[in-house]
Amino acid sequence: MLSKKSFTENLGKKLRYIREQKGLSQEELAYEAGLYRTYVGHIENARYSPTAYVVYRLAKALKVPISELFNFEN
């Protein structure tokens, strides 16, 4: 089982990876998800651990299934 810190770090890395693959800036992703750019940056840098609803909003903005953000094996 992952620690909360490891989970948050993996989620941030995965979020950044998918965002960059989609060619989006943090600002563009934040706008689409209805969040602040700085908040997206804090998630990507593992400073904040987002709620399930925030992860849902990010997945919708990225047009990926929520499970993709939690697939840390790639």
* Helix content, binned percent: 55-70%
Count of β-strands: 0
Biggest sheet, open or closed, and with what strands and sense? Answer: none
Rg value = 11 Å
Low-confidence stretches: none
Portion in beta strands: under 5%
Number of individual domains? 1
What is the fold-level CATH name, i.e. the topology? 434 Repressor (Amino-terminal Domain)
Q: Give the overall pLDDT as a whole number.
A: 96
* CATH top-level class: Mainly Alpha
CATH homologous superfamily caption: lambda repressor-like DNA-binding domains
The end-to-end distance, rounded to whole angstroms, is 17 Å
The SSE string, one letter per element, is HHHHH
Helix/strand class? mainly alpha
Shape: globular
What is the name of the CATH architecture? Orthogonal Bundle
Specify the number of helices. Answer: 5
Task: Furnish the topology, listing elements before pairings.
Layout: H1 4-21, H2 26-33, H3 37-44, H4 52-62, H5 66-69
What can be said about this structure in brief?
This protein is mostly helical. Helices cover 66% and strands 0% of the residues. It has one domain (4-69): lambda repressor-like DNA-binding domains (434 Repressor (Amino-terminal Domain)).
